[in-house]
User: What shape does this take?
Amino acid sequence: MVEHDIDESEQKLDAEVAPALIAVHPYQKFVSVAVGSDLRVFSFQHGSAAQLSDDTGGHKDSIRAIRYSKSGNLFVSGGDDKLVKVWDTDSWRCVYSVVSEKRVTSLAVSGDDKFVSFADKFGVVYVVDIGDYDDENRATVHKKAVPILSHYCSIITRLDFSPDGRYIISADRDFKIRVTLFSKERLEGAHEIQCFCLGHTEFVCSLAFPRSQDYARGLLVSGSGDSTVRLWDYNSGSLLDTCEIGTKAGLSNSNQKQEDALPAVTDLCETCDGSMVAAAIQSLQGIILLRCNFSSRTLSIAKVVSIAGETFIPTSISAASSVPLLWMVMGASSLSATDSTLLARVRVVSGLGADHSEPIVPETSVVEDKEVPGGEPLLQALQGRLTINEEASLTTAEAVKTAMHNLLIKKQYSAERRDFRKRGRNDKKIKP
Assistant: This one.
């Protein structure tokens, strides 16, 4: 990993630019987009934007992670304002608000809806017990988080519970994937490490769990800044296969700058039948579909789905567990103090519902705006406007690329800056 000198102005820029995120309800009742501190939710039942209610006033800084629970009853969000919010999707009220000591980088919800876990920028993972959730039109409850494990000052980029709920899986900026037993005594700490999945040579930023009817426990797929997608047995930590996704998609060449030679995988998402994984990659106008062969335990590229006619490089992708659509968003938070515009562009890919376990190229297509489920009201609600011009798309794509690079590279400080940061850290201060 390349190290770079940084100064205060660069740190400020990193904080100002955050990629847009998208999350889809398991039964596609809602689609949510986060851009900066703005959380936008579209309800298919009502055909309009959902009205969010939060006694604490909502997020105050860039949102870095959003997630629906497996049941779809809960939605969670967290980010740079050091807050994790738990929303009831029936009323879209914020029912729990959790304060983190540091900025929140990732989060996950247990399969039984009883626990929310989140990670902060210092690599500490916390768990919050929400098992007594009961929405009786009461005020937001301020829950306390309990630390359960740590990656020792390495930014955790992705957090997930395994499909069977036995493990909590965390990936970080320092190439590691850690599989930790999620103890039955949930709030007593997760001290038993099942294994590490080691092999990436750059930051790991995304995880997914392809599965089949005969392999419900699934395997683990990870995406990284080294431009590879890797397949793992997460029970043993064994590396099963590596797909050089950047090279095979023709995105790497010797004429590029060193930092651009390996375009990063920015997000992964299982298709609704679980047999395929969609991948967003930093320089690709579209997505790549990968097929997981469970009998041979291999990973291969099934298709590259290109988006022609506009500059659209997804920053986040998501799919419902029951609908054969893949939702994508490209966007970024404000790029300057004088620009209050929150840019976002939503696109949809269809044709992902058939059983692709056989080596057949899926008949996918990019849905035109007029045919997107929810139509113009959805685009207006999630994008903030019906159309995004080409200049805005180009600016957004470049800003997000720079933001991800600056966030995830290891930063090298001068001796003076290092001492100053040590004095300013409050996690080491002894509290009376």
Notes: The CA atoms of residues 351 and 364 lie 4 Å apart. Residues 1-15, 336-340, 425-432 have pLDDT under 50 and may be disordered.
